[in-house]
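User: I'm putting together notes for a lab meeting next week and I want to include a structural view of one of the chains we've been expressing. I don't have a solved structure, so I'd like a prediction I can at least talk through. The sequence is below, exactly as it appears in our construct file.
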Amino acid sequence: MALKNLLALVVLLGVVGVSVASPYENPFRKSQSNPGTMGNLDLDYYRYKCPQMEDIVRRVTIQYVSPKPTLAAALLRMHFHDCFVRGCDGSILIKSPNNDAERDAPPNLTLKGYEVVDAVKSALEIACPGVVSCADVLALVARDAVLVIRGPWWPVPLGRRDGRISRISEANLPSPFANVDTLKKNFSDKGLNTKDLVVLSGAHTIGVSSCGLISSRIYNFTGRGDFDPAMNPNYVMELKKRCQPTDVKTIVDMDPGSVDKFDSHYFDAVDQRKGLFISDSAQVFKIIDRQVRDIILGQRHQRKFSGLMQDWLAFEQILECLKTIVSLQSCFINMKIHILAKKISDSALLNDWETKLYIKTQVWTRGASFNRDFAESMVKLGFVGILTGDQGEVRSRCDLVKRETAMALKNLLALVVLLGVVGVSFGGDLYEGYYRYNNCPQMEDIVRNVTYHYIYKDPTLAAALLRMHFHDCFVRGCDGSVLIKSPNNDAERDAIPNLSLRGYEVVDTVKSVLESECPGVVSCADILALVARDAVLAIKGPWWPVPLGRRDGRVSNISEANLPSPFANVTTLKKNFADKGLNTKDLVVLSGAHTIGVSSCGLISSRIYNFTGKGDSDPAMNPNYVAELKKRCQPTDVTTSVDMDPTSVDKFDSHYFNAVAEKKGLFISDSTLLDDWETNLYIQKQVLLNGFYFNKDFSDSMVKLGFVGVLTGDQGEIRNQCDRVN
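Assistant: Thanks for the context. Below is the predicted structure for the 726-residue chain, given as structure tokens.
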């Protein structure tokens, strides 16, 4: 009965729409007085008015960033600059005929990537005119651009409105020449803390700058032809080879040796005193001598010199002295300053050390928590100064302000907000972030990194891993039972439909790494669900949320592997899916995964050579396509591979539906989708709309698939190895 109820719930969720989460509360709403920050954002804000919105943003962003990866840093910087002036309201995008808008301020003159935002907005105005704000577009574009270059993913709650004001005079951004105290105040003024400061500085891992911004640091720091002593002398020499004193244009990497990767190497560079800007070095160079550090930490010298450490100015002068005098005691003796009475508080000293401690932690742990921390800080950044409800507007063009106050638009926006608020959550015992609160917060980063490692070497594994997840869920539910080996060859993986499965090594590697990090915590069922999603994402396919918390099954029988057959007609397929709580739309949508699939000549030989036993071909197939297949597949050939989406197998797109509509479905189970009015209608819509809804629909159906027959709570187990029960 519990399983029936669960399946009923899955069907219900499919009907009313699955939401990623309940509406997001502003993470620091009480710390800001700006009324624009008091509203709520929702991950599903556009689901009911522009459901394809995120797919359009992702597709256009990939189109621009893939051939030009440096745009990722530029778009991330643009989002940061937008949020740090008037809040995340898209005001950075506004043009002014008088050159007095934010984008005209000196720090913003080097911003790039406006064309990406404009292209996304143009596409959205065609699909959903007047609905999606430029502020939301920019927030999503920044996230998706980072994802394209294999950086971390973070949720982007939506529902921002666009600001109407953009002034050059207000563009007071954190300066690359600022010290850590100034930076901390800059961030605090926006409701962000010291950890956010150092974490978001980590975005410099993909950043570039120009020689002009560092010339004084390496050639004339104090006006005496010297360089900044906070910099590594060897690094200074490297920079001088690249930057001549009068050079203001040459580009310099902000993370030397690793600028093409979004990783934690930036912190290694800063720790080695290779921070390009003063704002980088400021996080470390508060302490330049171990003896001074010991005084600050109160580890020694407390009695002898405690009276001197009563003012930060005194400490700064000690540092200046130590640049020329080696002896710490000589510096104290020669100091000619007045000791102020007020002692620096311990908390202030700890605050000053927070950035240093974080940097050291990332160096020591090789960035174990950086991606997660970056994601959390980016979510917080996205709430800074937001406009919601009736505030601001939704621009028709991102570079121009419009004054739209019609009551009809207000009512429409109010309806969208209402629908976002009442959006249905996942339900059940699965939820996103499950392992963050269950002893393995780095779990998803590990899965993603290992999966990407394999997929980039062999992109065809994406289809294989997606198929494996499907085969797992369709037998005993999504319990990882397809992974179990049997010494008697009588497990699920030994069934004929599963003999061609591959990619087990990816799951095994992920499990091995996770067992070393979080032993006995993460289930193989959850690993397979995530690996399938991340593999598709690695080949630029759609993203979908993967609620976690599955347990592993203990049973795997070859006799139960009754999977949907490639020779089945649409009536049988609909029953197969209905038995799992999936509907007809899920059937046709998930069949779309064949866009990246391959098969063998053996499975289609009878269709093209002897369909009725009279040496004929299946009349449901396009005769020209049959002729092409015969050139590739000889009658007795059972091993040669055949693409399931001719001409587009290397892309996750909607072209599969075009192929089926042209009677080029490879299997009977593909061609038969034209025999049912509902599946046929969906295919024709995808062809007509160039697959506008496919990625969103695929994501929704994959979420539903991931709930089929799950084990939770005390059910099942957490396997130590995915190929055997404990």
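A couple of points you could mention at the meeting. DSSP finds 30 helices and four strands in the chain. Strands lie at 208-210, 251-253, 598-600, 641-643.

User: Perfect, that's what I needed.
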